[in-house]
C-alpha cells in the first residue's frame, strides 16, 4: 500500500453523511435477496473489472451505472431485502463495523424509519413499527459503542501495536424522504422529537433526502422548523439537480423552481447542507460570505452527475470536473468528506480521502486538517473537544511513524 493510502486508512476520520440502507454491503444485499427470492437488477451487480488495464489503479475506476435516476431505481430494491428485524439488525451492525474498521472515530448514520416485518419467515408475527425500527438501530448503536470502548481499553492494555484502533462513536439522524407525503414527513419528525427526548445522547438530528426531482423543501419547511424548536439539528440535501443561474433567469420552469428551492434552503439556514454541488454562483457566493458546513460526497457526486462517464469510469478524471470542490479547498470553505452510500458506490472513507488527495494534490497535513475541521460540524456538540484531542493525538503519532 502506498504511503498516502496508508495515511488515509489510519487517519482518524469523521463521517457525517451516510445513509444506512445505502451503506449495505453488496454481499449482504445479495444474500438477503437470495433468502427472500428477490431478483436484483443486473445494473446493481455489474462489475467493472473488465475495464481495468494493468497500469490503471483499480481503486479509482467505477463504471457501474449510478446516475441519479439509476441510484433511485436501485434504492427501491433494498427495502424488499431489508424487510425484517433480523435484516435491519444485521445491516446496522455491519455498517457500524465497516466504518469503525476504516478508522472512523465518529459516525452520524441517517435513515428513514420504516415499517418492517418482525420476521420474514413468520409473517403472522406481525410488523415492527417505525418507532421500533429506530429503537432497534439505537440499541445496536449503544451496544456497539460500549463494545468499542471495552475493545479499545483491552487492546491498549494488551497489545504492543502503536496504532491501536480508536473507538468509534455512532449517532443517529432521522431522515425525511422528500418523495413522500407531508403526513409521512410529519410522522418522522414527530418520531424524531419523541426519540430525542428518550435517547438525548444518541439521536442528534433530522435530515431531508430522497429523490431530488420530487417535491420541494418548502413543503416540509414548517416541520423542520418544529424539529429545530425541539433542539434537533438539521441537514438538508440540496443542489443535486441543475438550477437557473440566478433569480432573473426564467428560461425554464424546472430550473427556476430548483433555484427558488435552493434559495429557500439557504434562507432557512440548516446546520449543514448535503452535497450543495450544483448551487448557482450567486447563491454559492452568498454562502461563501456566511458559510454553512457542506457534507461533500466525492464519489457519489461524480457518479450521480455522470462525471466519470467521459473518462472511461475514471473517478480521478471525473472528480476534476466537480463543480465546487476545488474552490472549497482553495478558500478553506467548511466542508467534510463523506461516503453517502458506500454499498451503492463501492467506496469507503479512506478511498474518498485518497481520491480527493490525488485529484487536488493534497498532502498528509491538508487531509488531517480536513478531518479535524469536520469535528466542528458534528451534531453531538458536547463530544467536540474530546474528539479533537483524540484525533490530534493520533495524527501526531501517525506523522511520527511516516
Ligand atoms: P435509508 O434512509 O436508510 O433507507 O437510506 C437509503 C435512502 O437514502 C434512499 O432510498 C434515498 O432516499 C436516500 N438517499 C441516499 N443517497 C441519496 C442522495 O445522494 N440523495 C438523496 N437521497 C439519498
Ligand atoms: Zn445523501
From TrEMBL:
Its cofactor is Zn(2+). Residues 12-391 form the Adenosine deaminase domain. Gene3D superfamilies: Metal-dependent hydrolases. It catalyses: N(6)-methyl-AMP + H2O + H(+) = IMP + methylamine. It holds the Pfam family A_deaminase. One of its GO terms (molecular function) is metal ion binding. It comes from the Eukaryota. Transmembrane segments: none annotated. The keyword Hydrolase applies. Belongs to the metallo-dependent hydrolases superfamily. Adenosine and AMP deaminases family. This is Adenosine deaminase domain-containing protein. It comes from Cyclotella atomus. The lineage of its organism: Eukaryota, Sar, Stramenopiles, Ochrophyta, Bacillariophyta.
